[in-house]
Design brief:
This protein has helices spanning about 15-25, 35-45, 50-55, 60-75, 80-85, 110-120, 140-145, 160-170, 215, 235-245, 260-270, and strands spanning about 85-90, 95, 130-135, 150-155, 180-185, 195-200, 245-255, 275, 280, 285-295. The chain is α/β, with parallel strands linked by helices and about 300 residues long. Helix 1 crosses helix 2 (about 35-45). The longest helix is centred in the first third of the chain and has 15 residues, at about 60-75.
Length: about 300
C-alpha cells in the first residue's frame, strides 16, 4: 500500500475491521472469508480468538491498521493465508513454510492415520524406522514421530531449502534428535531396512496444473505438484525404491489424487508388495492413503 492510498482499516475498532475485511474477501469470491478475516486480524494484532473478543471495541493502532491492510492486499491477490503468515497447522502441530514446500493440507492427515494403524498393528519390539520421501516441510514425518515414541525418521527431498525448513520444524517441535534429512531423488540415498515409508509425491498431471486454483498454481512449488503427463511419474520411481528398502512386514503408504488409488495399487503389486486392505478415504470421500506391505521371503 502506497502512502497516498487510504487505509480502509484506519480508525476502525477490532470488530468493525474484522467485518470490513470479511466483506472484502466475500466480495472477491473467497470461500472462507470469515475464517480468513479472523486469522489475518489476529495475526496482525498478535491476538488469539479470546483476545479479539475481549478487545472487540478497541480501535486499531496505525501500525495494526497498516499491517492488516497489507495482509488483506495479499489475500485479495490470491495468496493463501498460510503463505501470508508463513505457518500452517497440521496434525495439531505448527509447521513453518518456505517457497520450496507445499502447504500441508488436511487430506494428507489420512496418510498419517493409515501409517499409525499399520505400525501399531505390528507391535514392533524395536524402535520403528521411518522414511518420508519428498518430505517438504516435514509434516508427515514429524507428525508420525510426535505420535510414535522412540521412532527415528529420515526425510528426503530434492530441494535444499525444503530440507532446511523441515529440519527447522523438527528442532522447533523437539524432534531434532530423532530425525535426519537427506538431499536425494526419492529414496536413492537411503539404506534400509525401514519399518514404514510414507510419501506425498507430486501427482497432478502436467496439463492440469494451469487449471488449479491461483492459491495452488501460483504459490505452491511446481516441483511438488507436477506428476508428469499422466500424474504417475513419481509413483513409478518411488514405489520400487521403497519396496527395496522396506523391512519384511514393513509398509509403504502414499497419498493419491482423485481416481488414482487403483492404479497405484497396481504399481505396488508390480513391485512385489501386498495390498492387503482398501485405500483409506479422506473426509471428502476421496481414496487418499494407499498402502501395501512387504511380505517376508
Amino acid at each position: 500500500m502506497t502512502p497516498r492510498e487510504k487505509n480502509p482499516f484506519t480508525g476502525q475498532s477490532i470488530e468493525s475491521a474484522r467485518r470490513a475485511l470479511a466483506a472484502q474477501l466475500r466480495s472477491a469470491g473467497l470461500d472462507e472469508a470469515e475464517l480468513d478475516a479472523r486469522i489475518l486480524l489476529g495475526a496482525a494484532l498478535g491476538l488469539d480468538l479470546t483476545g479479539l473478543v475481549v478487545q472487540a471495541g478497541r480501535p486499531l493502532t496505525e501500525a495494526e491498521a497498516l499491517q492488516l491492510a497489507q495482509y488483506a492486499e495479499r489475500r485479495l491477490a490470491g495468496e493463501p493465508v498460510a503463505r501470508i503468515l508463513g505457518v500452517r497447522e497440521f496434525w495439531g502441530l505448527p509447521f513453518r513454510l518456505s517457497e520450496a514446500t507445499l502447504v500441508p493440507r488436511p487430506d494428507t492427515e489420512t496418510v498419517v492415520e493409515r501409517a499409525l494403524e499399520l505400525v501399531r498393528e505390528r507391535e514392533l519390539s524395536h524402535a520403528p524406522r521411518i522414511a518420508d520421501i519428498g518430505t517438504g516441510s516435514g509434516a508427515i514425518l514429524l507428525a508420525l514421530l510426535h505420535e510414535i515414541p522412540y521412532a527415528f525418521g529420515v526425510g528426503t527431498d530434492l530441494s535444499l531449502t525444503a530440507l532446511e525448513t523441515a529440519k527447522a520444524n523438527a528442532t522447533a517441535l523437539g524432534l531434532g534428535n530423532r530425525s535426519a534429512f537427506v538431499a536425494c531423488s526419492y529414496a536413492a540415498a537411503l539404506r534400509g531396512p525401514f519399518d514404514l515409508i510414507v510419501s506425498n509425491p507430486p501427482y497432478i498431471p502436467s496439463g492440469e496444473i494451469p487449471k488449479l486454483s491461483i492459491e495452488v498454481r501460483e504459490h505452491d512449488p511446481h516441483l511438488a505438484l507436477d506428476g508428469g503427463n499422466d500424474g504417475y511419474d513419481a509413483y513409478r520411481a518411488l514405489i520400487p525404491q521403497a519396496a527395496a528398502r522396506l523391512a519384511p512386514g514393513g509398509a509403504l503408504i502414499v497419498e493419491a489424487g482423485q481416481g488414482q488409488a487403483r492404479d497405484i495399487e497396481t504399481l505396488m503389486m508390480a513391485a512385489a508388495l501386498l495390498v492387503d486392505r482398501p485405500a483409506k478415504a479422506d473426509l471428502g470421500g476421496i481414496l487418499r492413503a494407499v498402502s501395501a506391505r512387504k511380505m517376508p521371503p
